[in-house]
Amino acid sequence: MKEIGNTGAELVGIIGAGTMGRGIAQIAATAGHPVLLVDLDQGVLDAAHSSLERILNRQVEKGRMSKEAVGGILGRISYDTGMNGLREAGLVIEAVVENSSVKENIFSALEGVVSKQCWLATNTSSLSVTALAASCKHPERFLGLHFFNPAPLMPLVEVVPALQSQDELASSAFELMSAWGKKPAMAGDSPGFIVNRVARPFYGEAIRIMEEGVADHVTIDWAMTALGGFRMGPFTLMDLIGNDVNYAVTESVWAAFHHDPRYRPSFSQKRNVDAGYLGRKSGRGWYDYSDGAVQLKPREDKDLGQDILWRILVMLINEAADALFWGVADAEGIDRAMQGGVNYPQGLLAWADKVGIDRCIKKLDEMYALYGEDRYRCSPMLRKMAQQRGTFRPDLAAV
Ligand SMILES: NC(=O)c1ccc[n+]([C@@H]2O[C@H](COP(=O)([O-])OP(=O)(O)OC[C@H]3O[C@@H](n4cnc5c(N)ncnc54)[C@H](O)[C@@H]3O)[C@@H](O)[C@H]2O)c1
Question: Ligand 1 in contact with 123 (CB < 6 A)?
């Protein structure tokens, strides 16, 4: 396998110049690589070009970057509607629509252009990296590099080896992402990788609390931000992501887990999607964004707020512990992923150590007894850790 990333001199190809592709192009060019950004649609390429110019020139205006540095980055990015310019590429990252047959067609076309040594990566959020690798003639050079939106700002990249990946590929890619200024986390090729799996209860349990009539969405958002320290409440975040996108991710994780009830999507969110209440982009979601809309006030009751926070937090901790149990990542990687990919105020496993693993188990068992639903089953990892009187993050205690 050819070395890439040491000198910054190797060409990086990005397929798809939408939201993610253009951000990844900016990162690679900032790290010193010549970049070729490919999209079928010339209009999208033009839009990517002007958006990158706008974003980077703003950095000059704010005094964060020099004019020369920005000129260098913009000068290293070329744009094309075809892939022929990728012959010399050392790495190609695919960031087109989340559709396996579209992606497979791209990789088979790419393999006709690039050398056998060129690494091929997918930015897929929900498809199996192993299944995509299987569509390649040389799956040993294939892996997942899952960036988070907005890619230039979010530190996390999940590095996901396929079953067929050559042994050292993932660790070399991990080093490359670190050299690009990212904080990568190694993740197993299982549904949702780390973040999109562990984060499900942030949305699902919040909706469930609202559906049960315990509190309205504004109060739940208040509890999670004011008391929990989360940067955004679940409903505000769903409106920002788009209820259609968030619902589709939940549905795909649920289906990939063979409909495990733990990940079951909610009827309320589906109804929002059906009504076109997609969030900020449609002017209405859980909140109303139209001019003059009445802003609802949260019920700032501390006891209620703590109950809400505790219920959602315990569900998140359970999911993080379960991801550890199934070997999706190590404890430090899971915590870093949730902080670097979705801005959680603390790592969930470190949080479990702080609040007490026994308390988490007690809350989960209470909910399981009350509802009788598998959704609330406690991860064996929490029970194991409690039995051993251990902690998830002894590395932090030592500091
Ligand atoms: N948007 C996010 O928040 C996010 C976050 C992480 C990962 N992802 C993943 O990244 C990928 C891209 O998502 P996005 O939000 O940037 O999508 P997008 O719709 O913004 O962009 C996709 C681009 O791919 C182009 N395209 C489609 N078919 C093509 C082809 N055959 N050749 C070249 N270009 C083609 C389209 O013209 C479009 O510009 C998806 O797999 C998605 O799951 C998205």
Answer: yes
